[in-house]
Known about the structure:
alpha+beta; about 35% strand; 9-stranded mixed beta sheet; about 25% helix
Amino acid sequence: MRFKRMLARTSVAIVLMIGFASESQYFRTFAQSTPKGRTAGVAVGPQYDTTHVYVAPQDFDRFVASVVATFGGTTSKLGVFTVTPTPSETMSQLVLTPVGTLSVFGFKTPIPFPFGDERTGYLVTDMGEAIRAAKTTNADVLVAVFNDPIGQDAIIQWPGGVNTQLYWHTTPPSYAPLQTVPENRVYVSPERADAFVRSFLAFSHGSVVSDEPRAPGVEIGRPAETYRRVRIESKFGKLTALVTNGHLPYPYGREMTGYEVTNLTDMLTKAKASGVDVLMPPYKTDEREAVVVQFPGGYIAEIHSIRKK
Length: 309
């Protein structure tokens, strides 16, 4: 009897040791895949997060006028500046609409690498802390911090190859709050999607609003299929990660931002009158009614209205 009790205790101990070893291995693996350390929040607000739009100088004014006619809003004073760390010259203007802010560039000289590949510019409270946070959360620094005429800039790259510009102003800007917050639309591969989400969440201090493994494929031009869609919200605004195998019909993957409007039909009337082309006609899902359009100068955007349930 004593032997059986000893055997039982020994068996329990072995099971516990195996379980502890397995659990430890799990936590070690998880820890290795999760950004290390705690970072400070550096976001300011979604009205300061700008979609970067590059157009030819000859299309510049026509593009800006079309955006304002479609969405409403105002513009900053047009100027010609050097906004890169190496010699260059570009027309530059902000378009401040109720549904999102755009930074428009019309380069008069060749565009230095890697400028033009970044999708968004995020205003940060402290550039040094932002760069530290980027590195800590497994983002790469493609362009080290440099001075521009009104502050500082840098370009970072998230896992999955998504480029973002960080900027800081010597004199803090003051923009009106947005009526609706646009979504930064990011296309990533299944192999890098989780790494991207972990990195961005750690940097932005955001949260996952939804992670839909079988989102309707009509949203990416493949109506007979499904795909994974992750929606994230933070003080930087909204971000939607579209996880695909890259088999995308044009123009999906080219649109950088999704703008939310109250009435899609009325908006399309204004857009067409201002020279906007409809690339993908309106479609409906349970969540929204959406369309993909192209503005004069080539800028492609998704525009949607939320469907009330």
